[in-house]
Structures are given as structure tokens and as C-alpha cells.
Amino acid sequence: MENNKRTLTVFLGVLLSTVFFYLFASGGSLLAGNWLFPSKDFGDNTYIGPYDVSDFKEAQTTKVLGKGVQDLEGRFDVDVYYQDASFKLPPEAVLYDVQGTIDRASTGEENPLVVHVKEEAVRTLLNQNFGMLDFTDDEVAAITSGIERRLRNGTMPANVQISDYLDASRAEKVAAAAQATFSGMPVTEGLQNGLAAIEGYRIEGGSSVSFLRMMEDAHAGSLSEEEMTRLASLLYAAVLKTNFIIDERSISDRLPAGVPVGYEAAINPFTEVDFMFTNPNGTSFNVATQTEGDSVTLSLEGLPFFYEYDTNLTGMENYKPRTIKQYSENVKTVAPRIEEVGEDGIRVTVLKHVYNGPIEERFEEVSTDFYPPVHRIEVHRLKPEEQPAESGDGSGTNESGGSVGSGGTTGSGNSSGSDGSGSGSAGNSGSGQGNNNGPGDNSGTGNSGSGNSGSGNSGSGNNSGNPSGGSGNNNSGSGGSGNSGSGNGSGSGGDGGSGNTGSGNGSGNNNGSGNKVEYDKGGNPIQP
């Protein structure tokens, strides 16, 4: 019995000792861990990078950040830019420090990720891609630090402009990064004022520029629409030799004087036709201008571009103008009045080439400009001036397009005339007079005359007797011709004479008539 009690007592003692030592060891290690290695817990509104770790214990935070870093490394996309060129930063050059991030984080705040970028890797990449810049050690260190700061927010993709970290002395050595020159430009006073106003105008990195706003900000004063168009065109030609982005550009119906085809940027402040562009670089550029005679140069001064830009024209087509004839009573001269000289139409395509040294990297079509032909306009007189008419010799005369002729006959007998016809606006008449002396019949014939249109015939009379006659003569007048003839007859016979007829420019009947001679009972002619 006593042995059983003794055994039970020993067993209970061992059990209690074991429990005591276990609790002491566990509690001691827990207390020692919390005291020597305290756990970092976070309260409300605590963020590390893009991750919310509010009310998280350290272990939870470590797990969340570990998964987040894996995700960042899986979609790592970092571009390092210098002006218009860039290269990809490899993931191997970057190390995310999870424990260091937790150690530096503060509860209730927004905390960055701790990122380490390998400086030697950055130096190698810079020399491989932008070796012409000859980076200093300080610049490499500044660029490395800049990349680290950008990656601390834990977002992708990421872009880093190294020009922000270059030595300030480089800015003092800036030269013309791009320029354009127009020759043969009318250098008016307004244009000179505009050039002086924009001298030194600053085009900020990442900014968009409106030409109308630029002129307003520069207090350029009053410029005509053509002067502003010439100035904007010069700026446009310089912008084409950069990596700037063209946002808005228009052309006119007719190419302004002094502006090369393909490089016009039309401006109209009344209709708000503007020229707009964007500088996508991280650096700014200043406008510089220069005038020499009729040659004007505009430069964009700043850090040089990595690539070289150039433009050329292709696919040029010309279109000939038509001649438009108009008629006006105000024009009196034979030579027409020229209202518009006319101008050829043209179509041209502008190409932009990008070079990396002697190697062409790419080219792109900038625009296709079309200017329709301007037609020649001639104003002529309504009708030619009338020419003076020619006059003719003869006894015939014109009256209202008619001719009158006279002729005589001598002898005894009767003469009669027949009707003729003509076409026109007036009639022509011819008369024949015959004198008969003696018995018998004299026959007389009329001669026909012609006018501009239409003809008349003279009639004949029958007289008795022995005829002896003369012939008529042809005479012409203005607008028609008449014939005159005379004949004398003596003895017992009659004389034949000819009557005169004339025709003119007219319609109607041409009548030739003979005067009948009366005789008394003794056979003697009665004189009229």
C-alpha cells in the first residue's frame, strides 16, 4: 500500500515537473522572442507600394509583399528614355527587398517599396545605347537613383527620362536640334515683328503648343493672315525635323508666296484655323529666328536628338488650268482684259525619314497636299468693231439698200419694163427712158444689176422703125450696182435703148419702166 502511494507520488512529481518545464520553456521563448525580436504589426490605413496591409501582422505582410513582387517581376516593363530613343531595362538589373521594405514601413502611412538597381548594369546599358553622350560617373549614379525612385511605387509599365538627371552644364551647350529655312519669302514688317516676338519662346517638355496661343502669349501684335501663315509654315517645317507630334494642320486653296509646296500650315484667326503640335520629350526647346535678305531661318534649340530626321517630296503631279472667256460691253479693245492670269494645280506627298547614323530606321507619310489649278479668266468685248465700207464709181446710187439707174432711147415706139425680184429688206427700182423719133417700133432691153442680195431685171419695149442703139454701162455703188445706157435713133426706124436697173441688199421687187412717147396726128412726137 505504501509502495503504491510512493509510486503515485513520484509519478505526480514527474508530471508536474514536466508541465512546469514545458510551460517555462515555451513561455520563456515566447517572451524572449517578443522582447528580443518583436513582431511588426500594422494598424489602419497602412500601405506599402500599391498594397494595403492595414491591421496585418508581419507574417501576413511578408506574404502579401512576396506575392506582389512576384507579380511585378512577371510583368516587368521599364523603358529608359533619352529624348526620342529608349531601351528596355532587364529585370535582372533590379532587386526588390521585401524584408527591408517591412522594416522601413510605418504604420498608418503610405510606404514605398525598397528597390535596388545595379549601377554597373545601368552604366553598361547607357554606354551600349547612348554612348555618344559620354556619361559621367555622377550622371550614371543620378540615373540609377532616378530609376529606383520610379520603381518604388510598384506600378507597371514604367518610363524613366534620363535627361532629367543629366548634368546641368549640358543645358548650357544646347544647339539647334532642328531648323528650317525658306528662301524667297516676302519679309514684310509684320513678319519681322512676328519673328522678333517668338524669339526665345519656350516649348516645354510634354506640352502641347497652339500657334495662335503662341502669338498671343508672345504679344506679336497685328499680323495679316498671310504673314501668320508664312510664320506658322516655317515653324511647321522645323517641327517636321523632330519627333514632335502634329495635332492639327491645314492648307489654303492657293500656296502662299515664299512657302515651299508641302510645308504650308495655314492660319486664320477669324475661323480659328490653327497649327498645333506636342513635344513628347522630357526636355524643353527654345525658338530662335534669323533673317538674311529674303531668307528666313527658324531653329528649335535644345538637347540633340538621338535620331536624325529629314523630309522629302514624292509623287508630285501638276494640273494645267483652263482658260475661261467672258464677254463684257465695258471692254472696247481687241485684246481681252485678263482678270486672272491662272496658276497650275499641284499634288504632292511629304515623307519623313528617321536615321540612326547612316542607317534609315523607318519612314512615314506625313501628308498629301493638293492645290487645285487656278483657271485663267479673259474678258473679251461683245463684238468686233465694224470695218469701213468700200465705195464704187458709177451712176448708180444706193438708197435703203436699192440702186437707181437711168438710160435713154430715141426713136418711135413704146417701151415697157418687166418686174424683177430680190431678197432683202428694201426694194430696188430701175427706170428706162426711151425717145422715139420716127415711125416704127424700137426695142430696148434693160441691163440687170446686182446688189448684196437679190437682183432685179429691166423690161423691154417694142418700138417700130430701124433701130440703132447704144449699149449701157455698168456702174457700181455702195451696196449694189446700177446700169445706165443711152441710144439715139434717127430716120424712119426706131432706136433701141437700154434701161437701168439696180439691186440692193433687200427684198422686194425691182421694177424697170420705160416712158411712153405720145405722137400727134401728123406723126410727130409730142415732147414731154
UniProtKB/TrEMBL annotation:
Origin species: Bhargavaea ullalensis
Ranges annotated as spanning the membrane: none
Annotated protein name in UniProt: VanW like protein
Region (Disordered): 380-528
Amino acid composition bias (Gly residues), ranges on this chain: 402-411, 419-459, 467-511
